[in-house]
Each structure stands twice: as structure tokens, then as C-alpha cells.
């Protein structure tokens, strides 16, 4: 099975590109893989919590869907263990929609005879990513005052799993 490329290969924002061709069958991306993000809302969504803790991006970049899912699982597990099932509300605020393409090349002994190189390369879709702008919220967790430090700790655990640089902010929610 093929392995994933490093996340740094896709963290820079590239122009969304739809190939234009006089041949219709070459003019569009045929299939996009399913997103790995399972849920966008977790916990108790209807309760009014007093505080909101968010992960905010400092730079524009892209985050692959598997990195978002990994961070979501870490945050959700930490909040669920500490605050219980109804002691928090976690929301993923971005949606992965940008298709990531890769021009796969063979490597190894005698692979040079089989490659066509990068001439007119378009690549096959290998995943999807969320395009993040500067100052955009990635995750937000709403909690009560007694779980505020727990939420900060949980979001801090997720930051190493995401590309880019982030700041964690906490603010009181007006009810």
C-alpha cells in the first residue's frame, strides 16, 4: 500500500485549478476521496456554556483532512474524559474541500525507463484539504468556568498535529 506524503508537501496554498481541455474526458477531476472527518459537532450543542476556547490560525495554509480528524479525536477524548458527555460542546469550524493532486512517479531500480516526467502533469487526486486564512478559527470548544483549563489543555494537545502556527484564545460568551 502506498504511503502518504508528508504534510508539509501540501501546507502551502496553491491556486485551485480545474483543467481546461478540448477533450471533455480530460477536462475535470473524476473522483475525490471521502473526507476522513467523521463529525463536526460533538458534546452538548443545546446547552448555554459560559466560555469559548478556540484555536486560531496565525498564517494562511492548508490542513489535510486526516490531520483535522486526528486533532478532533485528541480534543474530543480529552474533553469527554474530563468534562463528561454533556460538559462541553466542540465544533470543527473548517470544511475540507480543496482537492490535493499528486503526479505519482515510480522509484527504485530501472524505474527511470517507465517514467514520463512532469511534462503536462495534472496528477491524480490523493486527498482533500481545508484552506485556512489568517485569523480563522479551526476548533472551538464551549465549556463552563470549571472546565476552562481542561479545554485549553485539550486544544493545546491538538496543535502539534496540525500544520502551521496557532494561538489559543479564551473568551466569555455573552448569553
Helix content: 10-25%
Number of strands: 8
State the end-to-end CA separation: 51 Å
Query: Which whole number gives the mean pLDDT?
Result: 84
The DSSP helix count reads 2
Which fold name is given in CATH as the topology of the domain at 39-97 and 121-175? Aldehyde Oxidoreductase, domain 3
Major sheet characteristics: 5 strands, antiparallel
Label the CATH architecture of the domain at 39-97 and 121-175. Answer: Alpha-Beta Complex
Radius of gyration: 20 Å
State the order of secondary-structure elements, H for helix, E for strand: EEEHEEEEHE
Your description of this structure?
The chain is built from 2 helices and 8 strands, in the order E-E-E-H-E-E-E-E-H-E. With 175 residues, it is of the alpha+beta class. It has a domain at 39-97 and 121-175: Aldehyde Oxidoreductase, domain 3, CATH 3.90.1170. The chain has a 5-stranded antiparallel β-sheet with strand order 1-4-7-2-8, with helices on one face. It has a 3-stranded antiparallel β-sheet with strand order 3-6-5. Helix 1 packs antiparallel against helix 2 (148-158). The radius of gyration is 20 Å and the shape is elongated. The N and C termini lie far apart (51 Å).
Amino acid at each position: 500500500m502506498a504511503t502518504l506524503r508528508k504534510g508539509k508537501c501540501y501546507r502551502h496554498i496553491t491556486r485551485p485549478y480545474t483543467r481546461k481541455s478540448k477533450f471533455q474526458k480530460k477536462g475535470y477531476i473524476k473522483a475525490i476521496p471521502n473526507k476522513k472527518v467523521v463529525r463536526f459537532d460533538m458534546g452538548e450543542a443545546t446547552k448555554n456554556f459560559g466560555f469559548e476556547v478556540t484555536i486560531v490560525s496565525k498564517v494562511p495554509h492548508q490542513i489535510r483532512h486526516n490531520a483535522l480528524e486526528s486533532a478532533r479525536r485528541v480534543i474530543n477524548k480529552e474533553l469527554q474524559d474530563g468534562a463528561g458527555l454533556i460538559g462541553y460542546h466542540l465544533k470543527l469550524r473548517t470544511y475540507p474541500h480543496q482537492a490535493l493532486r499528486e503526479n505519482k512517479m515510480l522509484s527504485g531500480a530501472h524505474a527511470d525507463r517507465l517514467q514520463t516526467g512532469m511534462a503536462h502533469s495534472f496528477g491524480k487526486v490523493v486527498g482533500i484539504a481545508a484552506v485556512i486564512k489568517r485569523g480563522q478559527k479551526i476548533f472551538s470548544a464551549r465549556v463552563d468556568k470549571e472546565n476552562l483549563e481542561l479545554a485549553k489543555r485539550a486544544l493545546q494537545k491538538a496543535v502539534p498535529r496540525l500544520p502551521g502556527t496557532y494561538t489559543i484564545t479564551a473568551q466569555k460568551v455573552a448569553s
